[in-house]
Write a structure and sequence with these properties.
Terminase, seven-stranded mixed β-sheet, extended, 654 residues, 36 strands, nine-stranded antiparallel β-sheet, alpha+beta
């Protein structure tokens, strides 16, 4: 078998049997070339007599024949043909040194790459980690190749195997080859990585999924047509997405269109399609048909116009008054159309009543189970689930009975008393003074709080919704003292947080609205607000109750300087306390420029001008605090040059 040289090695390519055979073939070919060279007696190297030490030999000085014969028979000096052939078949290029050790020892700064370049042949070598471009551990190995292309294989003292490739004078890095044991460990470790492997359950789930492609791999339509017919392309392919230009002969549109086919079996299909103008169609075809049937799908606007036209046909529609009249009538049948009982119970009253889940007029036979002691008629009503209900029965012997169904359990029949019997019971009850109230009881209770302040469960009396007007909802409640709850989203709310509180109005106008009163509101952030309504003045506006927490421990904030201003003895700081701005500090700045700013929310609404003391002399300057928060000094009253300004102020914001 002939093997060609391999010149496209990659760093991680494995070495197999073919590679070793190829190397052996290369070595054998080298031997043949060497043997041919040795047998070439034509002086291929053009060697002269002087070069081999025969410069003084001439043709006249010849040995005697017996000397030649003796020399010719000297087997110690000559080799036989068999010996020459044996040696010619041997390793003529040295792979090792004469002792059989490695040919090259690469360490102490010697570069493996340079050794290969210098030797330009195959050779055995030894390396350690003091060499350059050697494996990381001491190793022995073999290089096979020449100085521009070859392979190096090295085995370190820990049992590791390394490989390095030279191709077109470019070296790869050393790559460690894996042992069978090491590879198996990696395979075992990889096999245990359940997050990167699939289970049978995964496969079963995926196999049960959509395996037939409906679209192309990039998500676009699977079928693209520029000619032919949709029918021929779709009739046998199953569920699929498609596209066709207006050149497709059975295209219902004059433009290109896209769609999807849904099928149940070959030769039968239906689906939908939409063209680039937004027009839509649905289609179908059966196995006994040879073309697609296209049907336009109505657009929203088109459908709405048809609905509007139909809705305007008042002669075929009912009016709201018609519906109200009919809805207020008895829509559920209580009796037969002739007014007689809707049904007659002959077997079991309980079972037959449950067949009618609404108010019903019925009759019953005395012989039926669970009926009163005499036949008669009655009424039955129950809940939607038929687990609760009541029966009123009037017997043919002029008695009245009642029973109930509660949580699917029937009570016994209770006979209802006559007027005379009932009056006797009432009279007896009326004489029981211990369970009735006296006038004194009534007077005491009537003197208590009769107007509700809260709901019956103790919650708020009035709920103010997101769409309500907070103040309008309060006054609509009229003359009352009550409680309320608001989400904070209603118009005219005191806070944007949810709020609870109370209100009290003592007067009414002609519309029943409160005219004089107050509201106290507390939001969930523990802020309290008040507002007062005077009929003549209107609402006075929400006012938040200021507590000591609003004025104590308010932090000081450094004023940002501008135009070269800087701090003197102490930095200029500010804070907002209630409705006042506090300024404190010593500033070094020029006059007539804005030297700093505070937030506009902390500045007086209309601006303020006041006096501040100068430093370095006795004097004063005016400070202007603008409504946008800018600070500026202007003018000076001083005996000598000033070197700063003491700004210690408390300024009202309104």
């Amino acid at each position: 078998m002939a093997y060609e040289e391999k010149t496209d090695w990659l760093p991680d390519d494995p070495i197999n049997e073919d590679d070793v055979n190829r190397w052996e073939k290369g070595i054998k070919n080298a031997h043949k070339d060497l043997a041919a060279h040795k047998n070439d007696m034509n002086n291929p190297h053009k060697t002269t007599k002087a070069q081999i030490g025969l410069g003084n030999v001439d043709n006249i000085q010849q040995a005697a024949k017996k000397d030649f014969d003796q020399h010719n028979q000297d087997q110690d000096r000559h080799v036989t043909k068999e010996e020459r052939q044996k040696w010619d078949n041997g390793q003529l290029t040295k792979l090792t040194d004469d002792s059989g050790k490695y040919l090259a020892e690469i360490q102490d700064g010697l570069d493996f790459h340079q050794v290969v370049d210098k030797l330009n042949q195959s050779f055995f070598f030894y390396t350690n980690n003091t060499g350059v471009n050697t494996p990381p551990l001491s190793s022995r190995g073999l290089y096979i190749g020449v100085k521009s292309d070859g392979e190096a294989l090295a085995m370190d003292y820990e049992g590791g195997t390394w490989r390095k490739t030279l191709k077109a004078s470019v070296w790869t890095d050393w790559v460690q080859l894996e042992t069978s044991e090491g590879a198996q460990k990696k395979v075992d470790a990889h096999a245990k990585q359940t997050d990167t492997h699939v289970t049978k359950a995964d496969k079963d789930r995926w196999n049960a999924g959509q395996l037939f492609k409906i679209t192309a791999d990039n998500g676009t339509q699977k079928i693209n047509l520029t000619s032919g017919t949709f029918y021929d392309s779709l009739k046998d392919v199953g569920s699929v997405t498609f596209y066709g230009t207006n050149a497709v002969t059975d295209n219902p549109s004059d433009t290109s269109l896209r769609g999807m086919q849904l099928v149940g079996q070959p030769g039968i299909g239906n689906g939908y399609a939409v063209d680039v103008k937004g027009n839509a169609w649905w289609f179908y075809y059966n196995s006994n048909q040879t073309a697609i049937n296209w049907y336009p799908i109505e657009s929203v606007a088109g459908a709405q116009s048809k609905v509007d036209a139909h809705a305007n046909k008042t002669d075929i529609h009912v009016t709201k008054s018609d519906k109200d009249k009919w809805n207020n009538a008895q829509l559920n049948k209580i009796s037969n159309d002739d007014g007689q009982p809707l049904f007659n119970v002959t077997t079991d009253l309980h079972a037959e009543l449950l067949k009618y889940p609404s108010l019903t007029y019925f009759s019953y036979e005395k012989t039926a189970a669970n009926t009163p002691p005499a036949g008669g008629r009655g009424f039955w009503t129950c809940s939607v689930g038929k687990s609760y209900g009541h029966v009123l029965a009037m017997t043919n012997d002029n008695r009245t009975f009642r029973k109930s169904l509660a949580n699917n359990i029937w009570s016994d029949w209770i006979e209802l008393d006559s007027t005379e019997a009932a009056q006797k019971l009432v009279d007896a009850h009326a004489n029981m003074k211990d369970i009735h109230v006296t006038q004194a009881d009534k007077n005491m209770w009537n003197g208590a709080q009769l107007s509700k302040i809260t709901s019956d469960n103790g919650s708020y009396l009035l709920a103010i919704g997101d769409e309500d007007n907070f103040l309008e909802k309060i006054v609509k409640n009229g003359r009352a003292f009550g409680t309320f709850y608001s989400t904070g989203k209603a118009a005219n709310s005191p806070s944007n947080a949810s709020t609870r509180g109370m209100f009290h109005f003592t007067s009414l106008d002609s519309e029943g609205k409160g005219t004089f009163g107050y509201v106290i509101a507390v939001d969930y952030k523990n802020n309290m607000f008040t507002n007062y309504l005077d009929l003549n003045l209107g609402w006075q506006g929400w006012r938040r109750i200021v507590t000591e927490l609003d004025t104590e421990n308010v932090p000081w904030i450094n004023v940002p300087y501008k135009n070269g201003a800087k701090s003197g003895d102490r930095p200029l700081q500010y804070r907002k306390v209630g409705n006042t701005l506090h300024l404190n500090g010593h500033v070094l700045t020029d006059r007539e420029v804005v030297f700093g700013s505070v937030p506009s929310s902390c500045a007086p609404a209309k601006g303020v001008v006041t006096m501040v003391a100068a430093s370095g002399t006795t004097g004063y300057s005016k400070i202007i605090i603008y409504s946008n928060g800018d600070l500026k000094l202007t003018g000076i009253m001083a005996n000598i040059e000033v070197n700063g300004y003491y700004i210690d102020l408390v300024v009202a914001l309104t």
